C-alpha cells in the first residue's frame, strides 16, 4: 500500500546550508588574497631599487659617472647592463598592468638614475638615486617629471625635481666627453 522511499540522498535544506557555507568561505578567501598581486609588485620594485643602488655603487668604485649615463632609462644599452653590473635591465613591475586600481598609470614609467651632488669638506661627491620615473619614447625623463612612489599598500605618483645638469657643482664634477 504505502511505498517506502529510499532515504540515501540529501534534503534540499542540507544542500542549501552546504552551498551557503562554501560561498562564505570562498568570499573570505578571495578577500584575503585579492591584494597579494599588488604587494608582490611593490616588493619587486623595492628589490629592483636595491639592485640598482648596489650596481651603481660598484660601478662608481670602478668608473667616473658621465652625464650621458644619468637621467636616462636603464635599458639594455646602459653601462650598468653592458658592463655586467646588472645582469639585465630592471623591468617596471606595473608595465603590463591594464589598471592598477587608481588614477596612476605606470605603463610609461622606467627605472632611471637621477643624482645629487653634495659638497663634503670641499670635495664634490655624487650620490646616485634610482627612481621609477615617467619617460618619453626616447627613454629620457618626461617633461611632466612624475615619479612612482610606493608604501606598503599602494602606489602613487608625485612630481619630483630632477638634478640640474647645468648646476655649478654638476659642471665641476662631471668629466668632459
Could you characterize what this model shows?
The chain is an alpha+beta fold and 177 residues long. Helix content is 33%, strand content 19%. The chain has helices at residues 12-33, 36-62, 79-82, 168-173, and strands at residues 109-120, 123-134, 146-150, 155-159. The model has no long low-confidence stretch (mean pLDDT 80).
State the share of residues found in helices, binned by percent: 25-40%
Beta fraction of the residues? 15-25%
Question: What order do the strands of the largest sheet run in, or round the barrel if closed?
Answer: 1-2
How far from one another are the termini?
Answer: 107 Å
What's the SSE pattern?
HHHEEEEH
Rg over C-alpha atoms, rounded to the nearest angstrom: 27 Å
Q: Tally the helices: what do you get?
A: 4
Described by the principal axes of the CA atoms, the overall outline is rod-shaped
How can the largest sheet be summarized?
2 strands, antiparallel
The structure class reads alpha+beta
> pLDDT under 50 segments (min length 5)?
none
Overall pLDDT metric: 80
* Secondary structure tally: strands: 4
Domains, number: 1
Amino acid at each position: 500500500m504505502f511505498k517506502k522511499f529510499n532515504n540515501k540522498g540529501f534534503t534540499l535544506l542540507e544542500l542549501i546550508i552546504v552551498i551557503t557555507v562554501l560561498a562564505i568561505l570562498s568570499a573570505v578567501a578571495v578577500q584575503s588574497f585579492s591584494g597579494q598581486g599588488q604587494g608582490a609588485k611593490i616588493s619587486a620594485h623595492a628589490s629592483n631599487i636595491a639592485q640598482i643602488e648596489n650596481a651603481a655603487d660598484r660601478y662608481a668604485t670602478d668608473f667616473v659617472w658621465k652625464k650621458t649615463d644619468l637621467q636616462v632609462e636603464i635599458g639594455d644599452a646602459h653601462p650598468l647592463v653592458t658592463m655586467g653590473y646588472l645582469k639585465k635591465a630592471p623591468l617596471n613591475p606595473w608595465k603590463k598592468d591594464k589598471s592598477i586600481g587608481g588614477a596612476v598609470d605606470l605603463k610609461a614609467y622606467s627605472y632611471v638614475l637621477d643624482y645629487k651632488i653634495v659638497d663634503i669638506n670641499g670635495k664634490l661627491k655624487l650620490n646616485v638615486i634610482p627612481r621609477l620615473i615617467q619617460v618619453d619614447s626616447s627613454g629620457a625623463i618626461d617633461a611632466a617629471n612624475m615619479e612612482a612612489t610606493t608604501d606598503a599598500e599602494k602606489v602613487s605618483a608625485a612630481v619630483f625635481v630632477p638634478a640640474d645638469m647645468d648646476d655649478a657643482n654638476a659642471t665641476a664634477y662631471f668629466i668632459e666627453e
